[in-house]
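Go through this fold for my students:
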Amino acid sequence: MGRTLLDRVARFLWPLAVANLLANIGIVVTGAAVRLTGSGLGCPTWPRCTDASYVAHGELGMHGAIEFGNRLLTFVLAAVAVLCFLAALGARHRRATRLALVIGLGIPLQAVLGGITVLTDLNPWVVAGHFLLSMAIIMVCVALIDELRSPTRGLAPPLPRALAWATFASGWVVLYLGTVVTGAGPHAGDTDSPRNGLDPATVSQVHAISVYVLVALTVALLVAALRGGHPWLARVTGLVLLIELLQGALGWVQYWLDLPVGLVALHMLGAGLLAAGLARIALAVLPHRGADEARADGVPQAHAATRIGPA
């Protein structure tokens, strides 16, 4: 591919990085729609939709169309990821190129894992891995955005740094336990799919406790950031705390209302936003030079997507 074409694509690095993030959060929601409509086995095999066809047909009904449609969205994610990688190459941005490559490699890996969930009849533990990989990809998307547009900052002091990483780790526990609750609940994705055999009420209580710990750590981090004079960290942490509170309230409401599908879908969207926020917190305590991103040849970036200050 010619250098001129890469240079043209490079101008779209920033919007493509944002599109990467939005697309990967979006497919979490569409994946939830597949499960909540009982369409998880709408295409009963993989990589084909049926043993005889790669596409859904009329006999599979609405469930087949929903599942097949979600599979097609993987190609949209792949296209965005490839374009983002080419844009990073065109910008000669080393770290952005590596991050975009990781995202691009994560898409087919996610597709394969999604196929395994179908081949195992939506085994809840495999479904959990499928979801958690999405959370990891979302976090890498945030790392790319942070690399491209984020304030210049130094390494945070030990206390806020420790609290940030504790919050990040606690958030992963919350996300994992959320998959355990899902695996014990009624929305299996298909009427014949197995459940994990755990008591839904018990695992929901354990999950709630983990959320309390996460909120407490986030509040402690916010206080440390405000007292220590770290405005960017305080802003990021405050936003994540808001997401946690809304997500927690939504979780309790959906629990007491016996898990209506609309609220569960919103809760899945909240999980994607929480994953993005956790990544922002972890990155906010690390050093970053936002105004001078080095190219492979050491020349400052020329494109606005990789500069914060004046040109």
User: Anything to note?
Assistant: Residues 1-152+290-311 form one domain. The two ends are 28 Å apart (CA to CA). Residues 195 and 310 are 56 Å apart (CA to CA). The first helix runs from residue 3 to 10.
